[in-house]
Amino acid sequence: MRFVLVLIGTMVALDLLWWAASTRIARPSFARIAVAIFALAQLTGLIWLLAQRFARAESTALFSKFALTNVFIWHMILLPLLLLLAIALLPILAMLALVRSARRLGNPAPADASGALNRRQFLGVALAAAPPLFNLSLATIAMRQLEQFRVRRFVLPIAGLPSDLHGLTITQISDLHVGRFTSGRVLRDVVRVVNELRVDLVLLTGDLINDALIDLDHGLDLVRSMQARYGVYLIEGNHDLIENGPEFERRVKNSGIPFLLDESIVIKIRDVPLQLFGLSWTRARENRDAAIAAAVNHLLNQRQPESFPILLAHHPHAFDAAAAASVPLTLAGHTHGGQLMLNDQYGFGPALFRYWSGLYSKGASKLVVSNGVGNWFPLRVRAPAELLHLTLLRSGNG
Asked: What are the Cα distances from residue 276, in Å, to 39, 99, 206, 228, 317?
């Protein structure tokens, strides 16, 4: 809670700093009024967002979603970037201010009573207007993205895959985030596409809801609507536990949907036993990777040698321990493909994770990381929302 309060206080302080700085450079009264309206709208949106959060409610109205998209992008992208830019330019700005002051003392400029904008005033208005206009542009792009996702296909040669499992098909759904930014038509489209794929297994790798338990019943209804020949299986993610982790786990356990909470289940597919392992979210804040590895090793104590294993883990770093234990296939999510990426190698993905999107291999073990089909943050750059369609093939080396 202390961290949240500090973060909120920082956002409010940055809002006020931007308002003061923009008012100073945008001298005409109409520009100052526009700046004030935008700043007050952002502060109001931030308060609205916090009120929703503490009221444990999610808004799915179109206007609300667009307004919150503006608030998220402004406070989580543009304001931090403007702060970094101001810090980088501070020496130059200080020097220019000193030069300008010296010139005014030596040669006071005559007042312009014409009412027209001079060049300096025009530049000030442009500088003040640029961030809000850029914010609105990004929000418009984000709103279109919220209704879109792709089906990404992988054909996976697996060493040791039983011959009767050759051609097994899986739809992996990760990070559905039912709630604030993922609602309405796009969720219906997800269910429709999943059912049209007609796969053997549907596996959900965490973050069914965005954070509010008020959305859980809807999320569970969506999962019940998904069809697969051999069943639909679910694990938890970090967002599922934000409001009340024990209550989320209790309600999903009672839903009748197979929910693997540090548990495994053996499924007979074409008379071949396949064992699904579901890893719970590791709550450790320090030495997280070590804690994840310990949890994986503990879970794999349930391994049955005659069964073909697949590990479902929300955090992709579980792959290291899984590969060390010779688990042939791990499915993960959590990263959103890096969310904001400059290209395939630079962005938040590689900055935060060893594995962030797509297919990875270690020896005979494979990891597939989904970008996720839903959104906790509205804007994606080179990390599109996706469903995964996986086809397992028996490797010639198996």
From this structure: 51, 69, 14, 15, 18
Under CATH, domain 151-394 is a member of which superfamily? Metallo-dependent phosphatases (3.60.21.10)
Question: Which tens digit of pLDDT belongs to each residue from 40-88?
Answer: 999 998 888 877 777 766 655 656 788 899 999 999 999 999 989 888 8
**Tokens (6 digits) for 394:** 């028996």
Confidence (pTM): 0.90
Residue 128's identity, in one-letter code, is: A
Domain ranges of the chain: 2-144, 151-394
Cα separation, 234 vs 256, in Å, equals 11
How far is residue 233 from each of residues 85, 259, 277, measured CA to CA in Å? 46, 6, 10
Return contacts of 294-298, CB within 8 angstroms, 24+ apart.
295/262, 296/321, 296/322, 296/325, 297/321, 297/325, 298/262
